[in-house]
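Final report, results section. Input specification for complex C-07:
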Amino acid sequence: METHHVVDAPYRQQHQVEDALERFLELAKTQAVSFGGAGYLRLWETIERSMAGGKRFRPRMVMTAYEALGGTDIVAAAHVAAAYELLHTALIVHDDVIDRDFVRRGSPNVSGSYRDIAQTAGIPLPLAEHRGMSVAVIAGDLALSASYRLIDRAGSADAVRTRLREILDDAISASAAGELADVDFTVGGVVPTVDDIIRMERLKTAYYSFEAPLQSGGVLAGAPEATIDALGAFGQQIGIAYQIIDDVLGVFGDSKTTGKTTIGDLREGKLTVMVAFAAEQPEWHAVEHLFGDPDLDEEGAAVLREVLTTTGARQHATLLAGDYANRAWEQLASPSIPAQLRDELRPIVATVLERSR
Amino acid sequence: METHHVVDAPYRQQHQVEDALERFLELAKTQAVSFGGAGYLRLWETIERSMAGGKRFRPRMVMTAYEALGGTDIVAAAHVAAAYELLHTALIVHDDVIDRDFVRRGSPNVSGSYRDIAQTAGIPLPLAEHRGMSVAVIAGDLALSASYRLIDRAGSADAVRTRLREILDDAISASAAGELADVDFTVGGVVPTVDDIIRMERLKTAYYSFEAPLQSGGVLAGAPEATIDALGAFGQQIGIAYQIIDDVLGVFGDSKTTGKTTIGDLREGKLTVMVAFAAEQPEWHAVEHLFGDPDLDEEGAAVLREVLTTTGARQHATLLAGDYANRAWEQLASPSIPAQLRDELRPIVATVLERSR
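Structure output:
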């Protein structure tokens, strides 16, 4: 029986999260009709479609910490988990506005869907794009508000809920700080240092994707403060490792596995650990003009990949990610991490490291 | 003593609201430094500057309902009031992104401040504008999250707080529906009807500016459901009246009193009750091309004002606003509105009507 339970846990968790998301979206759509009719319903449907097929990565962090720490109210945990999926949606929808992206995972995102509707209606492209981005600003606001709503629906005791909201507040504040730093880098015109990049990525992504959901799972399970702190420290290290590897895969990955092209990041001039490292080597100057060129072709991308390899930038990033993953692994030895939690978190470290191979 | 108390109440209220806002912003700035350093601090300072000198209209609605219904925890009410000022900030910052406005009340808004910084750094205008808008997307998210935080800080009982959050959720949902309808109108290419405009303005502005803050003040004061309902009905009518008059003043007002030019709305093609009415008259077709022309000059604006007057559009809007204000006045006769509340709300109706003269 015990084995059966363990084997089925991830599936059961996932089912509960999907259920919480589905029920929330049904309610949102019903309210949308009464507030704003068919047009408002369509916006919620577009948000829902943009969420379909996601890896539910942040929800899994919440559920894993919660169950491994002995939490038994799976429905409550699924609501907190769903809150982080909605926060993720809000942040990527607004991030796409900032990056002027109209596509995500090969399909039109919220901005793209509304840009296409406007173009079909005969609106010229620049205006249609602005229209798509305008609707995406609204959609992101709705998803952000939804994350607060879902925390409230968890139905936990007042003190726990206050704590969960504080973690959510901090996650939003951190990702705003990271997004701002990212925008500032682009304006500065100077490639930031490796440390600057790591600080930015921790704030922009790692905090709300790892630290906050893991800690929320722990808080909801009633874990002691020392465990919450240890979950935060673990989340920070593994989150940074994940992000560094994600950036490497964005340039060198197998697009079949990642679902992303390996030219997009180079074309938009995404600042990563690799780029920050390479920019300090003399070889970079000869290829710098290709980086961030919107017309970059496969040949140019190959030149950039070559320099990122020969300067040792790719290797440096991979080793650095390994360092952070090791620190995360060591963190799990903390006496504040109970054995069952350790057993559940170790595979996460392994999965992150495997991605880099 | 009693007279003294009544005379001083608005001043005292205002002081408490400013105090709650100031303390919240101080905390946000301290957190900002620890999360994101000087750049993040500057963003909060820019948000704070954009809030300075506001009329604190929504906070006044909260405080008026709360005190007139016998509420005595002024500090708690001031936090709820401050939440609605932050919500207002979030919505106008994002609305300015959608409208591509870089100025508000004669000064650079959040987008404008960051556009200017980027331009000074040598970034070309289109990119500098996009950079300003990107930071404004982040700023609006922070202000939206802040409105939830401030409701939590009101420190009220759990059931009351849940109710306050539901009203805040609805306010955000309504304004999103209204903003979406507004964006849709511009894409549709057809001038909407007077009823469409009223429905849109109620959702986009009246709900979060009148209904929600009045009802929140009532809920916090522990008023019975019938009173909360009556406050909502009153808020809806007076909110629509206010908005219609605001649009009339946007074209015919005294810019010295309103602080706005009377050409801006005509230049950007703002759809209002007046325009919807005028568009149904044959005279409109001859001047239609001037409406929404970004290069509209004072001469062209005078032509449009003339047609809005001779078609009776201006008069129709003023009368319609009067109708809504009258309905609001009648609503005050409801037995669910206690005498003291009635006495406090009547001057609001009077103020709204006076603006139209």
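Chain B touches chain A through 51 residues (CB under 8 Å). Residues 1-7 of chain B have pLDDT under 50 and may be disordered. This concludes the modelling results for the funded period.
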